[in-house]
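Q: For a teaching session next week I want to show students how multiple molecules come together into a single three-dimensional assembly. I've collected the sequence lines for a complex. Could you give me the predicted structure tokens for the whole thing so I can convert them for display?
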Amino acid sequence: MRESDVIVIGSGFAGLIAAAAADKRGKKVTVLSKGVGTLTIGGGTIDLLGYGNDGRPLANPAAGLAAIEPAHPYKKIGSPAIYAAIKFFLAICESAGYPYLGRLEEMKWIPTAAGTLKPTCLVPKTMDTTCLKSAHTVYAAGFQGLKDYYPHLVAKNLSKLPGYDKNYEIVMVNPHFTDGRDVSALDVARWLDTGTGRKECIRQLVKKVKAGAVILMPPVLGTSPDYQVLEEMETALDCRLVETVAIPPSVTGFRLRSMMLNYLKTAGVRIIEQVSVARAIMEKGKCLGVVTQNIDRERTYYAKNFILANGGFYGGGLRAEPGQAIEPIFNLPVEAPAKQEEWGNRQLFSPEKQSFAKIGITVDNKMRPLAPNGSIAIENIFIAGRNLRGYDFCFEKSGNGVALASGYQAAMSV
Amino acid sequence: MECKTKGSSVTSFQGRGNSVEKATVVVIGGGATGVGILRDLAMRGVDVLLLEQRDLVYGSSSRYHGLLHSGGRYAVKDAAAGKECIEENTILRKIGKHCVEATEGFFIRLPEDDKAFEEKWVEGCRKVGIPAIPISPEEAWRLEPNLTRRIQSVYRVPDAAIDGFRMAWQNVASARRYGGRVRTYTEVIGIEQSNNQVVGVTVRNFFTGEVEKIACDFVVSAAGSWAGEIAGLAGIKVHVQPDRGTLLAFNHRLSSRIINRLRPASDGDIFVPHGSITILGTTSSPAESPEDNLPSTQEVLAMMKIGEATFENLGQYRLLRAFTGTRPLYSADPSAKGRGASRNFVILDHEKDNVKGFASIVGGKFTTYRLMAEKMSDLVCRQLKVTAPCRTAEEPLVEDPSPGLLEKARHYFPAYGTELAASRLGAERLEKVVQSMEQDPEKRQLVCECENITLAEVEAAAQDSTSHCLSDVRRKTRLGMGTCQGAFCTFRSVGVADSQNLTWGQDTNKLLQEFLQGRWNGIRPILWGNTLREAELTRGIYAGMLNINGVIDNEGK
Amino acid sequence: MKMYQHNPDNCTACTACVSQCPVTAVTRKFRGPKMVGPALERLRLSQEDAEPSLEYCSNCKNCDMACPSGVPISTLNMLARAKSFKNRKHSLGEELLAHGEKMAKLAVNLPGGAFFANMGMHIGSGLGLMRMVGITGQRSLPAYAAESFLSQFKKLRQQIFPDKVVFYPGCFINYNDPQVGMDFVAVMQANRYEVIVEEEFVCCGSPMVVTGYLAEAEQHAEKNSELIKKWREKSVPVITCCTSCGLMLKQEYQELYDIEGLAENAKNLYDACEFLLLLADKGKLNTQFAALEEKVIYHAPCHLRAQGFGLPALDLLEFIPGLTVENADAGCCGLSGNYGFKADKYDISMDIGERLFARIKGSGTATAVSDCGTCRLQIAHGAGVAAVHPVTLLRQAYQR
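A: Of course. Below is the structure for the complete assembly, covering every listed component.
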């Protein structure tokens, strides 16, 4: 019988971080993965905490953490672990040659494809907005045929925001995508992955932009977790380039995921794809192994500890039925409003957090699941990511932030 | 919750400059009956203007299951209604080829359904003239493999699916060719009389709150569930009891045919395939007001339970949304309620109430909208001494696109896009859309990938004078009505609206929020399973990533 | 709940599949898995039409693996492809590529057949005959072996052991690469198993399914399933060395066909490396390996990854002393069964494989290892490196 020290269920950001952190501690780690998680959907920024419960922006994430409510996963994890998680993540990025910027004491407001700003914490260098502050002329660049990005919309809305009343000019790049399917940001990024694509893009832009300006880009600066495209274009154009946050597929998320996978595989972490974990083998309140149910047969994977990072409702870690929420593998207790009408507020963009978003598993400060009476439900299971109870990542802008901190904390607890 | 930017300041009572708009006949209400009357009168040469408080089919005409009855449902209880249905069904299939999908229908009897009713029903159909052809359950399963295996008997009837949005839109297109006019987002707030004779109406612009007068000789109220309120403006009592009906839209076609239960009309027992989706309806309960149109989870669960008798795997299919409409049940006797009330229509000439030049049409059902319009128009024409006969039963609503145009369209539309676009657009508009795609290949892109809606079509719909927000564009195109319920196309269509320089396309965050809130109203009552997952994705994109609603302060410093 | 449903309802349109599709990554001719799969499936249920870019799906299954919602995207595509052939005819090239087994039988049953068939293919591609029927002239069709696996196997005298396994060779091993089959038998013998080869087995049907011959493949599925059932009832495991055959027998049969006993059969089907690793888990693997002082690079076939039990070859090869195995981890090789043999798909196939070729060339190893026969062909063609099945290395290590 082969046994891992740690089995991580789920390969979204929380699972990948948990696996990396457990590996770093010298554990033998196996990741059981179904699907690619939401990184390629949701973008490559690490939002830590942008808004308080009143919907007011926080001065910085650290200030928000200081006042966080007891039920929030951040409160359970605690500030020291959150600092350590960030340090751990930044070190991975650094070693991968794809360094991220940011710290807890600073709120980063980054431009989006809707021409809004969004508060975040850690970003790739392609999203460094420092240069925007002093810029007079900002070029809003778009790519012909890229239906997921409208530079005019970005420029028009940004120009109304305090500190963003710049001289905006729209510049369009024609990637000459004449035939075939509709263009996505990934297509443009893959075009810029190629030397010819970059050259052509630079050739077109250099005629339209003045040196020393800032160019706001859709997130298309290459698919590899490095800054080759950014650096080559910035040098050739003598401009600063800033990627905005846009709708899926997310190129920045794709880069982040590739970086994490490369890191784990190099470290020797086993990742088993396309497995659905169906149930657990339990003995005396401990989990001995998990059973995967594939179309052919069941397989059992044994480990000393398990990190459950398979997402919330979206990822499949939680299942919603009318009036109840279920954790399908271990049948862990999940609290949910019994009245279905109370799951969602009347307004989608409500001034309050959405109940359905906060549904999840209650944990202690080691990320162990708790029973309703406050006792530990299963002692060698640790929860990380969206299946945690008590936070609304959309409302407070903590997407990837809770995943990072809880994934790290779970790995530290095994 | 669509286009919710109601103007608040009512300016002084005034016309537009010096010239007061005039029409011979004003029709109030842009539902099925209203657009039918608009078309009928316009075709008879009458100068007619239709006023709708919001967008066309904002009320009940888009909030029903879209079934063009064969009459089978009324065959036992109300033979006259059944007969009207089969006659109108035959006419609409002919004139409305582009909004009617001739799916045919099944009436299926399950073990728990009364066998004696089946006999009565067969006899009723025979008497009314509804062809009901018995087939074996095995044949039914071959044709519709997802159907329950518990079927006892099956009959084929000429039911069809009719698209409420498209039907209204095409009636208007036809009326416009004859000089008929439409103003949407125009609320009637007063009926002007002089010596007990109607001389005009007072209207308010929904967005700006601007008030103006429109002069006319005759007012027709086809306001459906709002008919009581409109009559009240002239001091007349008309008793319309709105009755709630909630419906469910499923993500794909569960069957190719309409499936009815062979039993007395009851809740949640008709499935209607519509293009890419299936609609299950409906419930019946008294509504508090015509605007009482938010579905409840309880209604949804009750219908799911009933529906599972027809499709056992119903729980595994994806619910897209729930929606509620109000049936405008009219009764001279206010005590009759719900399905007990008559579904027949009544024309009330308010001359009897001492107001000349004002009539209301109440009750009825979508299937007979054309007949209702004909009868109402007959009355108007008699009074206006117009002798032209009704021609709405002969002339098609929109012309068929030529084979050449269709061929050309196929070249530019994506697969599975041409036929649907052609039937949505009709020949004239299709030609324009194809032209735009021909000139600029970028216009061939799909704004809505679930329902296959091209940029060219979205632009054309956005530019129409009756479009004032993205939900109006949605009703014309089916934008955002498929699997993702706007998760992707909302952003794209806002980008398109912004680039079109439309007066209503300026505040883009408002556009995004309005459209998504409209979708949310139908999603919130069914927040479980894949519907919840999709909602999380949508919210993740617009709130989590794009922060379209978040407060921004001080950051630029 | 049934895991695989043919309805598109689990799709949320999230685009995760688009981000992982190797075909989409190199060509815009394919509209991508989400559009062609679940998005169009809803429309296919409502009207008649055809999506021309459907033919660009290579059925590599990376979309299925990427999907966070468990949508069997590639299967929706294959079903739609089969449906599309109701209104059009197969080209000669498609017919040839779908029926490798038939062609092989014709060729090798003639005296000197394999030799002349290979000559013929050579001449055919030289004269552009292949290209005329839609088969690329830029790569050779896999050559037929002088003697098929079955024929070699029949001459083999095995040691008799109480433990037995049934080997499903599949067309490629039987006709083109019999050595893999012989190596497998030797490895099983070294582990005190007797190998039974069921002569009645037919082509798994995978090349037919991807070419739209769904009904014909169903006949194969019925035939094979009956035989697998026979051995299942005797509790003798059935083992494949070809990951595409394995995927077809276990999974795609269940997704595509309603044949009795498929789910039970699947429980009795094993990939060779997985089976050997299970022996190791039970402490039953013969680990008397001699050292192989060699560095090799391993390529995981998509159709192995799609089966959801990881990469057993990597764990297994660790038992061989001296052997250094590097995981290429470079995605799809691009050949995907008969996809890269089609004239209009050749460039796409090579563009997909480029990352893998570069990785192998950059590794400085002379030998690549992969469980899939067509992956091995593509590696040899694109990276110019000999590629072997993991069991071949195991056999070498047993024999030294």
